[in-house]
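Handout, section B. The chain below has 207 residues.
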Amino acid sequence: MSEDQSTATEPGLLSLGGMSPPPELTLGLKDLLLLPKTAQDHFWEALEPSLRVPLPKDLDKHLLAFQRQHEAPERRLARALSACRQLLRQAVANNLTVAEFERDLVAIADDEAAVTRILLPAFERAVPIVREEILYGSLTDHGKLLAGVDWRVDSMLLSHRGRRLQSPIALVTLRYIEGKEQRRITLQVLPEMLDQLKAMCETIVRD
């Protein structure tokens, strides 16, 4: 078979939107199968933090410990992680089902049973992680996203405006993401406004 004919018959992957797999992806899957059996069995422990964006600050330290524990060659593990990260993230982004992802693995893996054994459970675990990140990213691309709430209650006794006020004041700090930055704003909230916020939350949850 000529080189042109061979290239034309390469399978298009649903994970990649119908495109043929790049060489580094297929080579990375081969590296995955060359890892020690114990590294394959615990591969998710290295893959899970590698899927995240941004990558965890302690990822290098974590992977070094994984390499030593499972006697996994550094470069081979790195290539396997890179290929699987690309494949899983693209599969989730393209909303593949488990069956569709398995079909992709069968199409490109030399040992489909072994790759499926490792990556099919990983795909199911990766879906909520990557989907949440895609959702957060899609929202923060276009505005501020609430990321957390901290609060405390104080009592205001007096000010230059008056005495014996004896009013409880809630201090509410909203932590939000804007672009790639996390920011915060602290608001003083009177009891009447707390009642309005409570009613709003109850309505949103109920409806």
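Note. Residues 125 and 164 are 57 Å apart (CA to CA). Compare this with the example in section A.
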